[in-house]
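pasting for ref
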Amino acid sequence: MRQAAVAALVAAIGLAYCACALAQPMSKAEYQVARRTVESDFRTARIGCEPMRGKVHDICMADVTGREGAKLAELEAVYSRQDADSIRREALHSTAREKCEALLGKPKAQCLVAARRLHDRS
């Protein structure tokens, strides 16, 4: 459990660093450094999912992968000066759908509808 806490702390610090870096246009070198930082932070966060088993592991991995995708999309948007909100929204919607895949039957359908509503509302 301690390993997961350390991984979460490292990821939070890295994400805070990336959020500060996203405030202004960046050069290619800055983009590459920020991208490597995000990838490294989420690689560490994935280690926190390793002790988990079954659906809990799948949900943890989907969450980490989705958050990583969202951060990388924001980073790409700042670097290429695109609309970061729409890119982040798509990445988060993808994560929500992945979490719904762990469910069965009616709860799965309700989860997918809720994910779609969240995507449309954002």
